[in-house]
Prior knowledge:
By secondary structure, this protein is mainly α.
Amino acid sequence: MQNLVHKLYTAPAGNRMDKKRKDMAQYTQKAIIDTFQDMLKKMPFDKITVTAIVSVCGISSNTFYYHYRDIYDLLDVWLQIKWKKYFMDKLESMSWQDALK
Length: 101
């Protein structure tokens, strides 16, 4: 019984902290990707630097490198997001019979 009480009082706090960290990580990744996308609209990829991204985002370069290996890793993630969105939009507009073709 004491074990159960201990779990009830300690588990939620731990879960809240894990959720906070996960939410903050997702927020940071979204900020980086959004900044990258905005920069791509204004300049070619080869002119975009990690320094410029972190400056616009207001984060440290360590934070960037925590989430991405380098600018090419960020490009890869951005392309995957765009690819998934494109195909999900296509699938939603199709009938299930057309999607199976």
